[in-house]
């Protein structure tokens, strides 16, 4: 074990969590052979197999279960050491460790760029996840800050709203409902919806926004990618309930249109979330203050979405 590397432990932890080499490769932005090589090398150091394959699925061996426990403990200690060094460095020279849900990646990099412009010398560790993955990052203390729409419930986290987040229903400009004023939501009962996957922030927001007012909602497709949903709507394959912040460019150039529906847009909030008892490094505290003071105005400026 003395020759095992931190990289091997990190790759092993992701494979063990996903129980899939392909999904682990996707999360780590590596090729599947590279992931397999790292795990194989770790198994060589351990001297025991860490996974076994039954049919098409892989499972942890008893040695793998034990190794996962110690790997997470070691990774956590390195993370805490990194945090301690960042605190000593202060804001300049610190590392901003932050994760955001996928709807935020349409404007969030530009928001971060403005923060970096104001705070020279800051390094960035940004990750984009769906809601379930983001909650795991928080629970496992793998990120300092998380930006999402539906913060976790319970007493272990602090959730701070910093900007309004409107949701709209969009269609292709040629759709017959485009241009009609004051549509009742019930008039969409015969429309085919292209939706995000169940459990995503967008799916949960849609359930709340529609609130059972469309009986037997016709779901044409369930897609994990907002970009693919937009392309399907542009192609006339259906309509979609999406964050207004994800469609600002398509609205500007006329590739999508917002349906004028009574009670829309549905207004939610962007939240900044962190563990309640976590001692945030100075750079994270600085970004927290930046979002709370200027986040809403900057998002409106970056997306061009006006909120009444």
Coarse shape: globular
Return residue spans where pLDDT drops below 50 for at least 5 consecutive residues.
none
Number of beta strands: 11
Integer average pLDDT = 90
The largest sheet is: 7 strands, mixed
Distance, first to last CA: 60 Å
**Percent helix:** 40-55%
Order of helices and strands: HHHEEHEHEHEEEHEHEHEEH
- The assigned structural class equals alpha/beta
What does this structure look like?
There is one protein chain. The protein has helices spanning 6-18, 21-28, 32-46, 62-89, 108-118, 131-139, 201-210, 226-234, 248-253, 282-303; strands at residues 51-54, 57-60, 95-101, 123-129, 145-148, 157-171, 192-195, 218-222, 240-243, 257-258, 266-275. The protein has 308 residues and is α/β, with parallel strands linked by helices. The relative contact order is 0.14. The mean pLDDT is 90. The strands form three sheets. Strands 3, 4, 5, 6, 9, 10 and 11 form a seven-stranded mixed sheet that branches. The longest helix has 28 residues, at 62-89. α1 packs across α2, α1 (6-18) packs across α3 (32-46) and α1 crosses α4. The chain is built from ten helices and eleven strands. It is globular, with a radius of gyration of 22 Å. Helix content is 43%, strand content 21%.
